[in-house]
Specification:
Shape: elongated
Helix content: over 70%
Structural class: mainly alpha
Largest sheet: none
Radius of gyration: 18 Å
Distance between the termini: 27 Å
Number of strands: 0
């Protein structure tokens, strides 16, 4: 029974680590969509495609920038840094959803659907990056040894 419990905990850890950033973005984009349906009505098929374009452009732009035009690999963070950083995800998720809510309330229409998706995605990605940098700094400051060796 102890072995099963250890395997379960290891599986839970793998699931959380391998899905954490994508899960945070999924929550951000889903909640942003929900907020826009309430604040930037109507949610027509056209508005939904505009939303998709906004999300896609933001992701493509960030990816192009950090990979220097898709020519340079971005190094990964160690699992302990990712675990700590994604524990702060309520900040990046809330920022993304907050941006969409603000745009939906103040602008409305197709512009809010486009910018709400684009800026919610950019907010999530940029604040997630800050969370990752803060987690690495915290590990280096208070941890015993490099996070790469944990």
């Amino acid at each position: 029974m102890r072995q099963f419990f250890d395997d379960y905990v290891r599986g839970l850890g793998m699931s959380a680590r391998n899905n954490a950033l994508a899960y945070g973005y999924s929550v951000t984009v889903t909640a942003s969509f929900g907020v826009l349906t309430r604040t930037a009505k109507p949610a027509s098929v056209g508005h939904i495609f505009i939303f998709v374009v906004g999300c896609g452009l933001a992701f493509a732009g960030v990816t192009a920038a950090v990979t220097r035009g898709f020519r340079q690999r971005v190094e990964q963070e160690p699992p302990m840094v990712v675990a700590l950083a994604t524990s702060f995800a309520i900040l990046s998720v809330s920022a993304g959803v907050g941006v969409a809510a603000l745009l939906g309330t103040e602008i409305g229409g197709w512009v809010a659907w486009f910018l709400g998706a684009l800026l919610a995605t950019l907010a999530y990605l940029s604040i997630s990056a800050l969370e990752m940098a803060a987690a690495r700094a915290l590990h280096l400051t208070v941890g015993d040894g490099s996070p790469e060796r944990r």
